[in-house]
Each structure stands twice: as C-alpha cells, then as structure tokens.
C-alpha cells in the first residue's frame, strides 16, 4: 500500500465544474476545535413483465461474511444484509435532513397519482411517500427483495433491474431516483426511460453524490488514508464498468433527455461534528456513523475482486481510514447533488 503523504502536502483542489454560487455553498463554517480526548471517542399497473419474488432471487451469495444479492449477481458492489439495510435507512434520514426535512424537492403538488421509486433499496422512502400521499400509488423496484412486507396499502415493491427495458402500462406523475452511485452502467439510458414513462408536465428527481472528499478550511490532504480509500473505491467500481460519481453529471443528463425547468442544488455534507451550524453538526455526526458502520461493506467486494486485496490487508488499511474519519481537524466533506426537472406539457 502507498503511504500517506505528509501533513504539509498541498490540500486537494475543490471539486470542479462549480460556479461561483456553488463555491459559496460548500463553505461550511467549522465549530471551535474540540479537545483531543473528545476527538477520539465519537463513533468507538402494476402488473408488468418484471421479475417476481422467486426463491432463486433470495438464493444469496456470501463473501467475506457479508450477503449480496442473487439476481443479476455482480452488478452491484454493496451487500444486501441487515447491517447494510440499517445503514441505508440511516442514510435516508441524513439525506432527508440535508434537504430540509423534505422527502423531495420537486413541486409535485398535493395529490400525485402514480410515483415510481427507482432503486428503492429498503423501501423506506417509498413507504414514507405512501404515508404522505394517500392519493398516490407508489411503486418501488430494486435488485434485492429486502423491503418489508407490512407497508401502506398504496405501496408495492418489485424486483427488477432498472437497466433493463422498462415495461409499464401507464406513465408516472413523479419518478424518484436516489443514491445509485456505483450501481449503473448507462445513466443516459436511464434518463431516457424516465422521460418516456413520465407524464407530460410530470416531474423527475435525481439525488446522488461525488465520492471524493475535500475540505474548504481543514487539514484533509490528498493522499491521506481517507483519500486513498475513496479513490480506490472509485477505481474498483470503474473496473466493474459502473459509474461511481453520477452527482455532478445529473443536470447535463437530465437536460439531454429532454426535460425542462431543470433545477440543481449542491448540498455539501460534512463528516463528523466539526460544523458550527447545529443542523449540519447533527448531519455530520450521523454521516460519520454511517461511514463507520458501512466502511467494511463498501470496501470488501471492490477491493478483493477489482483490486486483488486480501480481507486481512483491507482490515489493516481500514483502521487508518477510520482514524481519518474520526478526526475533526480534517473537516472532510463530500457533495450531494439534487436535480429535479419537468417533462414538457406538449410532449408525448
């Protein structure tokens, strides 16, 4: 493994493709430095030709003590076990908090009729939307049948690969797609299918990430363990033929698909309790927890299969990554992108 660079190394450049407003948005004010003691203790239709829930789908694969989906095995790098489901539910809470407590930012009105949640994961967003909008039929799809069976009567789930051709009997008022970094090969095609199955005047919303960490005013440096881990994950995901960082590309893809009235919000997310702002401090604390909880699951398949590391090498490396994650002096943050747009009223 390469050794970390010295603390005197040049800090990484802030993420590219940002305009002046974006650069202002990423400036998170840090709180007063905590004591060294406290620094180290935190964190110790819908009938379609899609695939139904059959026993073959739940014949899961197990690797290095973690469980992975069986349907389209290998097309997704994260586990689908209970530990990962808990992390995804926590991430749902983090992303909702970062969006001001809202489940969505698109102005879909008070009575949407049909909602599609693409890559629903544990189904928690779809369930919350079913509760919030009793007028709507909410459909969630995913590679893994890990969603609960007790759900609101207007919520349904199906197992499907969203990169297959979509087959639905009618279009949707609103299509939602969140946190699919590292899950798709062909994002422009996904946008085209979303356009096809959105009603004229309906809305789509995509929420996703840059994986690279950076800092505006902290001690995070290019080449530290946290930076090397992130770049290693990106490299591994790319070897799978997947897109690791869709966030900054979402706006362009949405426009290319034909949507109009496009809105893009850049929302930096801190890691740890270092921000001064109370809400960002809470978000940062939760983000630290989900990274610490998910670090092994995020790393194992990518580093063993795509990079040829042993499980033992990974555990040694992750010890240093955890130290960086827990260090508030780094003031590490990463970018969350929300893009929502409307299908033209005069479209088919």
Task: Summarize the topology.
Layout: H1 20-25, H2 36-39, E1 61-63, E2 66-68, H3 82-98, E3 114-118, H4 124-132, E4 137-142, E5 155-159, E6 172-178, H5 187-196, E7 198-209, H6 225-239, H7 250-257, E8 260-270, H8 278-306, H9 311-326, E9 333-342
Parallel strand pairs: 3-4, 3-6, 4-5, 6-7
Antiparallel strand pairs: 1-2, 7-9, 8-9
Helix pairs in contact: 3-8, 5-7, 6-8, 8-9
The backbone outline, from C-alpha atoms, is globular
Total helical elements: 9
- The poorly predicted ranges are 1-13, 35-58
Mean pLDDT: 85
Report the major sheet: 7 strands, mixed
Provide the gyration radius in Å: 20 Å
- Encode the helix/strand succession as letters: HHEEHEHEEEHEHHEHHE
Helix content: 25-40%
Strand order of the largest sheet: 5-4-3-6-7-9-8
Q: Assign the structural class, choosing from mainly alpha, mainly beta, alpha/beta, alpha+beta, or little secondary structure.
A: alpha/beta
Terminal-residue CA separation? 54 Å
In terms of quaternary structure, the protein is: single chain
How many beta strands in the DSSP annotation? Answer: 9
Q: Report the portion of residues in β strands.
A: 15-25%
Organism: Lepidopterella palustris CBS 459.81
GO molecular function: methyltransferase activity
Keywords: Methyltransferase, Transferase
GO biological process, one term: methylation
């Amino acid at each position: 493994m390469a050794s970390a660079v010295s603390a005197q190394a040049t800090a990484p450049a802030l993420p590219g493709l940002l305009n002046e407003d974006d650069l202002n948005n990423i400036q998170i004010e840090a709180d007063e430095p905590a004591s060294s003691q406290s620094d180290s203790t935190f964190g110790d239709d819908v009938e379609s030709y899609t695939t139904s829930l059959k026993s073959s789908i739940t014949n899961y694969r197990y690797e290095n003590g973690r469980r992975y989906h069986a349907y389209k095995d290998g097309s997704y790098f994260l586990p689908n076990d209970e530990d990962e489901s808990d992390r995804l539910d926590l991430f749902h809470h983090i992303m909702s908090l970062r969006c001001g407590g809202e489940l969505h930012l698109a102005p879909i009105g008070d009575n949407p009729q049909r909602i599609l949640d693409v890559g629903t994961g544990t189904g928690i967003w779809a369930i919350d939307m079913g509760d919030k909008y009793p007028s709507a039929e909410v459909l969630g799809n995913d590679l893994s049948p890990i969603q609960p069976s007790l759900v609101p009567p207007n919520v349904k789930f199906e197992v499907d690969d969203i990169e297959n051709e979509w087959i639905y009997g009618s279009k949707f008022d609103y299509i939602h797609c969140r946190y699919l970094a590292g899950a798709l090969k062909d994002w422009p095609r996904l946008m085209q299918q979303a356009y096809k199955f959105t009603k004229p005047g309906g809305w789509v919303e995509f929420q996703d990430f840059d994986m690279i960490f950076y800092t505006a005013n902290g001690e995070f440096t290019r080449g530290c363990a946290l930076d090397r881990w992130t770049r290693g994950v990106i490299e591994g995901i790319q070897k799978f033929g997947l897109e690791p960082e869709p966030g900054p590309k979402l706006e362009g893809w949405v426009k290319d698909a034909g949507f109009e009235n496009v809105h893009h919000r850049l929302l930096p997310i801190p890691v740890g309790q270092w921000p001064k702002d109370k809400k960002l401090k809470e978000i940062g604390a939760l983000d630290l927890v989900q990274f610490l909880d998910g670090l092994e699951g995020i790393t194992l398949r990518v580093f063993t299969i795509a990079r040829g590391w042993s499980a033992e090498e990974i555990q040694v490396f992750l010890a240093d990554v955890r130290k960086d994650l827990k260090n508030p002096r780094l003031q590490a943050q990463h970018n969350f992108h929300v893009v929502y747009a409307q299908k033209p009223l005069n479209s088919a």
